[in-house]
Each structure stands twice: as C-alpha cells, then as structure tokens.
Amino acid sequence: MQPAIEVQNLHKSFGELKAVDGASFNVPQGEIYSLLGPNGAGKTTTISMLSTLLRPDSGDALVMGHSIRKDPMGVKSVLGVVPQDIALYEDLSARENLTFWGKMYGLRGAALKQRVDEVLEIIGLTDRQKGRVSKFSGGMKRRVNIGVALLHKPKVIYMDEPTVGIDPQSRRSILDSVIALKNAGMTVLYTTHYMEEAQELSDQITIMDHGKLIASGTHDELVKIVGQMDRIRLTINAEGARVVTAWKSTPGVKQVTAEDGTLNLLVDDSNQVLPRLFDAATTSGVRITSVDIQLPNLEAVFLHLTGRALRD
Amino acid sequence: MNHILDIALNDLVQIVRDRKVFLFLLIMPICFTLLFGYAFGGFSSGGDSDPRLPVAVLDEDDGRFSQELFALLKGSEVIRIETDLEKSRFDYEKALSDGDLAGIVTIPAGYSQAMLDGQPIPLDLWADQASTTGTTVQNEVLMAAKRLASAVWTAQITSQAAGKTADFDALVSEALLAWQEPPIRIEATSGVVAEEEPSQSVMSMAHTAPGMILQFAIASLLTAAQVIVSERKSRCLQRLLTTATQRVHILMGHFLSIFAMLFTQFMLLIVFGQFILKVDYLRLPGATLLVAVASVLCIAAMGLLIGVLAKSEEQAVMFSLIPMFVLSGLGGAWVPLEFTGAAFQTIGHASPIAWAMDGFKNIIVRGLGLESIWLPVAALVGYAVVFFGLAAWRFRSE
Ligand SMILES: Nc1ncnc2c1ncn2[C@@H]1O[C@H](COP(=O)(O)OP(=O)(O)OP(=O)(O)O)[C@@H](O)[C@H]1O
Ligand SMILES: [Mg+2]
Fold first, then answer.
1. What pLDDT score does B182 carry?
2. Which residue, of B98, B210, B354, B380, has the fewest CB within 10 Å?
3. Radius of gyration of chain B (CA)
4. CATH number reported for the structural domain that contains residue A283 in this entry
C-alpha cells in the first residue's frame, strides 16, 4: 500500500531563515503520525506546504498520490485541515459554520444536514450549536475548528497543534476524537509540542527542530536513542559552575546541561548516581534545592539530541 | 458554481448581522435625500424635477400670435411656464413676491391685431429687475417676442412679393422655423441663473435622489469590505484555500454578495424616489434599470477592491469613506456638474459617479431617450472591469 503522505526533501526559507530544511518522511495510511517540536521548529510551515497553501522552494510531496506541486486540487480533495489558528466565521453560529464549510467540501442537502448533526455530536456541541462562535470559549472554538475538518470524512487529516490553550477536559475529548478518527480509518498528521500527546497518540513520531527532522521512529525506538538513561532535573541554591564540572566527571553521568537555573542531567541509573551527586554538591559547598527524576521519554531524547529542553 | 452562491450567501448573512449596514443602505440615504431635496428645493415643488425658472404667462389677448408666443416660451430651455387656470392674477403676484415664481408675463389684449398692423404693443413683464433671475427671464421673453415680431414681418414682406397666392399662415410658421436655427445662436444657458442661487432651481429631488443613492452605495461598501477583510484576518480565507474551492469562485462569491446588497439598495431607493418623492425614474424603466445595474456593477467591483486591499477593518472603513466623499463630490452627486466650469466637468468625469449621474439625469431630468444612456453605461461597465481586474490581480497573491 502506498503511503498516505510521501514527503520528499521539502525546503522553505523566509529570507535568511530556513523554516523547513530538507524534510523527508512517509506517513503510512491509517496511522497517526506526529511532528514533535518546540516553537518555531517548522511544523506549521511543513503543514502549510503539504496543504498547498505555501509553495516549497524545492522538494515535493505526494498526498494520496497527488503532488502538491502539480495537482494541488487533487491534494485538497482528499484533505481535511485543522489549522493552528482558529479559522471560523465569528458572526455565525457553530451550526452555520459547519454547514458553510460542509458546502465548501462539496456536501449538500440532507447528507450535509445529517453530517453536521454527527459532527456536532462528535465535538460535543449539539446543545450549543445555535450559539455564535464569537461568544464561545477558547476550547469550544477549538472543537468547532476541528469539527470543520471532519465534515467530509477526508482520507487524510492534518491537525496543527489542535490542543493549544485549552483546559484538560476539552483536551482529553479532543485526543479521544483523534483516536476515533484513526479507528475510522483516517490518516492523521498531527503536530504538537507536548511530548505526552505525541507519546499517547502516535504510531510514529518525528522530532523537528530549527527546520530539520532530527529523529523519527515509534516512541520506543526514539526512547532507545537515549538508552536506559534516566533524566534528573535539579535546582541548586548558588552559581553552579563548580558543581557542574564536578558532576560531569562523576561516574554514571552522561550529560549535564544548564538552562535558566535548572540543571538537566542524563544518567545511567538514578538510584546509584544520585547519592554521588549530593556528595559532590556538598564538597563544592552547594545546596540542592529540588530534584525531579524522570524515566526515559521523548523529552530526554530531545534534550539528548539538541541540548535543550523541549518545553520553554 | 454552487460555491459562488454559497459564499455570496454566507457574506450576506454576515452583512445583515452587522446592523449598521442598514444605516448606510437605507436610513441615511433617505434622510439626506429629504434634507437636501427639500432644504434646497427652492422653486421646485415636491417631486418637481425641472431646473428651469418658473414663469406665469397670462394671455389676455388669446389671439393667433399670443398663442404663437406662448408656444415659443413653452419651448424655452430657460423658463418653464407655470399657468394654472384656477389661480387669479393676485395669486401669481403673491407667488412672485414669495419667490415661488421668477416672473409674470402678461400678453395684453389686442396683441395679435397690433402685430398684424405693424404696430406691436409691448408685453407686460413683472420680474425682479435687480436680480439675475429677473434679467434672465426678461431676456428670454424679449427674445421670444422679437422672434415672433420678426417672423410676422418677414411673412408680410414675402406675401406682398408673392401676391395673393401665398398662404400667410404658412409663411409665418416657416419664418418661425427658421428661427430654430438662427444664424447666430444665443446661448441662453441656465448658468446665468446658477451664479446667483445655484441651490434654488438645481438642488431638486431629481438631482438629489440619485446623487444620494450613489453616495450611500459607496458608504455601504464598508460593511461588505469588512466582511472580506475579516475573512482574511480570521484565516477563513486560508482555510477556504485548503478546500477544493477555486480562488476565482471565492472572488466571484464576494462580488455577487456586494452586487446583491447594492442592487437591493438601488431598487428600494428608486421605488422610494418614484412613489414618495415623485422622481420620474419609471419614465423609461428599462433605461433606469440599465443605469442602476451598471452603477451597481461598478460600485460592487470597487467594494471588492477595497476588501482585497484593506489590511484591517479600520482600513476598510477608511477606504470606503474616502472614495465616498471624493468620488461623490467630484462626480457631481452634491452639486451638479452642469453648474461648474468645463474644466471641472472634465475632471469630474474621472469619477464613475459622474457617469452614473449623467445616466440617471438623462432619464429623469433631461427627458432624453434610451440612446442617451449608452455612453454612461459603457463608462460604468468599463470602470467595473478595471476595478474587478485590479481586485483579481491583488487577490492572486493572497
Ligand atoms: N510567513 C512567514 N514569514 C516569515 N517567517 C515565517 C513565516 N512563517 C513562519 N516563519 C518563521 O519560520 C519558522 C518556523 O515557523 P513555524 O510556524 O513553521 O513553526 P512551528 O513549528 O509551527 O511553531 P509553533 O509551535 O510556534 O507553531 C519560525 O521561525 C517563524 O518565525
Ligand atoms: Mg505552528
């Protein structure tokens, strides 16, 4: 079976800035594929090119076999897009929005009406359907924003950070609906900077930073990059230069990075290493004020690959 | 195709939800028409659309030549005969002193006979000699009387020369006909009158009504343009471009919505003008419709261009109100271009509003035929094409 999306060496620059710098990946049909990366990584730029809104400087991509360069209409016909910025007519009600967008996706008459009802059910806004979108909360708008892309049951759906800025409950229901989409046979290209989301949803994950794809694979494959290393976050009560040098040479410590007063360490086994860290701190005359131990995860992978934390 | 209609309908729903559109669409044009039409209506009573000076002609002679003179005055481009058999001489004098009449001409008894005898008796004219209006009336009446006298004189000489065989009546008519193309044409334009009180005879409903429709059609663009701008700002436009909707359909949809809005406005205001203000749009319904459609095409295309160009809702308002003032003023929607100099008239016709005004006034003021609107209609459609073309060109890079 051909991949739902085949991305071939896409490049896009804005002036000097290389927003996307040679992206290549395949999204198999029926999978949830995540692009994980911090702000400015180039996720939205990638999505924009794949939805034919932006023309790539070079490279191409096939969406269900349609080239984004040569057959943009073909691409659009198989696509549903949930944009990062909410794109709705604020003066129209939820139902009116869905009805209008349904028409734009080629639905008409009774089929349209029925599908609008279904989507309202999916996004949990059946009882608020007559309310104007301008009066909705951020989370409700997000849900309508997603609903629009589901109307025509597209084969491929792009969701660009659909859970940004909403409460945990709405978020949960959105994540559930993404899983439901997959179960209904759709291919989902999902972008996020929340590693938990990527971890929970994705069949495959690609980590993006500064326009480059720095690693991809399943969650387990990615985590293997950092091996069985644990991650320790520490804060200390003083200027840390001396203790950092001491810790770097402590047996079992693989990496030490400092960021905004927090120290991130990758270590072989936190149970054995932690007491040595405290000893070194005491020797250096520094007090450790907090400790947080994390088992191997995508956060650690990102840290390992870029030297920075995923979240600001 | 369907998408064009869907998009247009979507726009219209949003336009109508913005209540202030009705202010510009109907309320303000009606208020301003009434205000300007009546405040500066001057001589014109109600729906009177005639810019000529009203003059009463009292025929005490009722002879052959008094009727001839009456006919001559009736054909004048400067004065208009206001004769009401119900009214007495006293009524007319009162009207004159109230400023509702520009003059009273009395044709004394025995006028025709005296003319035949070669001893013409003078006409009796009452008008304000000190005002331009008065002297204009005086000149016009004098000229008519002279034409008549000279025609009679010519006929007499000719019939003497030709002997009894010639038909004297026919000779008079012939001599009068010759006057229609006199060797030296005396241009009696109403411009003379305009100098004194341009508003009086000019700012009648027939001018004000179409002027205000056109002006507020442009004002209404601000709501429509805002809908287009907010579609872009809310990223709905981007989203539309991820559906299989073609760019040109989006543009056509927006154009159609503005067209529908303005066409409704024109029709309602024309009906209002016809039946309430007695402006005679329906004298040539087809021609009025054509001029209205051409004007709407042009202004709608302008609205589309504004919507595509404006970066924010505030800009959409500015980009609508500035052309409203400039194009309406320049195009003679306030003060008729006929009463400005030739240079300004030429400049004024850079505004499409001038062409629309020409179209409407050819029908309702000048009483011209269908052929008189082709040029204005062509100019308006030309502007529409240019505006639409610019909008489409700009829209390509969205
Ligand atoms: N239209 C544009 N003009 C100039 N620079 C742009 C434009 N769009 C994006 N960029 C830049 O390209 C880079 C990548 O941006 P992009 O929006 O793709 O990141 P992202 O991964 O989606 O980030 P976020 O998580 O904040 O949404 C950023 O540095 C951004 O400033
Ligand atoms: Mg983004």
1. 43
2. B98
3. 27
4. 3.30.70.100
